[in-house]
Design goal:
Layout: H1 2-6, E1 23-24, E2 34-37, E3 42-46, E4 62-67, E5 73-82, H2 85-104
Antiparallel strand pairs: 1-2, 2-3, 3-4, 4-5
Length: 123
Amino acid sequence: MAYATEFPAFVTAAMPALPDGWVDVSWHNDLMPHFINPDLDLGIWIDHSDPALAAWPGQGRFGLHKIDAEGQWDGYDGIIDTNDFNAVLHCIADAQDELAAQTRCATHTDTGRGVCADCGAFL
């Protein structure tokens, strides 16, 4: 739990459980705990559960975003910014489904619409 070391004032009981595959890359110079999933090319920032302590007031507590090949945030092109962790889990499940579809198909056949005709993966 790097976030517990890097952010000792963060309430660990308020930290939601992330699915398998997420790596804690929290660093004390960041505003809040940060986790990545290299397999899904996703990262998530998790702010305080108490809005009075929020690092990004007025933003959602959970910010899910794409990461690049080095595991770095690819800019502020977020997937979802919300206070609803179930919505985050839904986005993660969609990314897992897309990855599973891509690995089921050895050669993708483009339908001309950016979707594989064989497995349904987005191309």
